[in-house]
């Protein structure tokens, strides 16, 4: 008794799909931080990722469908050879489709991507941001609040519903500052100050970390970001001013040592430890411009 066997191309096509399906399914157990936004910046970036993935999925599925159609249509069967067009050379319609559809897809992605990217470089209008000076060290983070004159190490508090302008620099090898649930990452570079604004839409504790390998202690460069109500944030600032010890020059030199440390809080900090002369920026998101020496 003979058994009918399917075409070999079907096994070649379905085999890899069946083998890779468990890999895709295994990643569905928990939600990644970048896919669980807790602020307007992260939410906008997630929408841009969804837009890009959707456009790419349309292209991939279309290619799969066309490949399957070609395999079925031009497949030789016993007694039914596939069609042959040996003298075929050119099709204007096919050229338009092959070039036009990718152009439309790229345009579909590029226009909102460009608009949103430039929009995220600008602070929301009519909102005064909380400013935090961020210094990447080996292997720790120093945060200064110039408005309140306080400082913390390896943790920050921010008010919910208010934009926070981070001014990023480094007193160590170049690094990157990243709070995945609040927005994308930005570089921390010695001799430079780069801006990054983020905002938390709801109270919570969000993990921040370095996004760039910078040495043996890189894995320990994590910090806690606690978003609280604006009233609780102002009360915390006043409490730190009253109860925390001041940061001395010796304390700062200790932070420059290449090691790890826990969380620290200071009611003040020595003047001049954040770069005085560097490349600055304007708050409306324009290109970097020379910043005068504030000490002169």
From TrEMBL:
Gene Ontology terms for molecular function: copper ion binding; cytochrome-c oxidase activity; oxidoreductase activity
One GO term describing the cellular component: plasma membrane
One biological process term in Gene Ontology: ATP synthesis coupled electron transport
EC number: 1.10.3.-
Keyword terms, alphabetized: Cell membrane, Electron transport, Membrane, Oxidoreductase, Respiratory chain, Signal, Transmembrane, Transmembrane helix, Transport
Cellular compartment(s): Cell membrane
Signal peptide as annotated in the record: none
PROSITE patterns named among the record's database cross-references: COX2_CUA (PS50857), COX2_TM (PS50999), PROKAR_LIPOPROTEIN (PS51257)
DNA damage as UniProt keyword: no
Cytochrome oxidase subunit II transmembrane region profile domain span: 26-124
Membrane topology: Multi-pass membrane protein
Membrane-crossing residue ranges in chain numbering: 53-72, 93-113
Keyword Oxidoreductase part of the UniProt annotation: yes
SUPFAM superfamilies: Cupredoxins (SSF49503), Cytochrome c oxidase subunit II-like, transmembrane region (SSF81464)
Cytochrome oxidase subunit II copper A binding domain residues: 127-239
Family statement: Belongs to the cytochrome c oxidase subunit 2 family.
PANTHER family in UniProt: CYTOCHROME BO(3) UBIQUINOL OXIDASE SUBUNIT 2, CYTOCHROME C OXIDASE, SUBUNIT II
Protein name in the entry: Quinol oxidase subunit 2
Species assigned in the record: Candidatus Hydrogenisulfobacillus filiaventi
Gene it is expressed from: qoxA
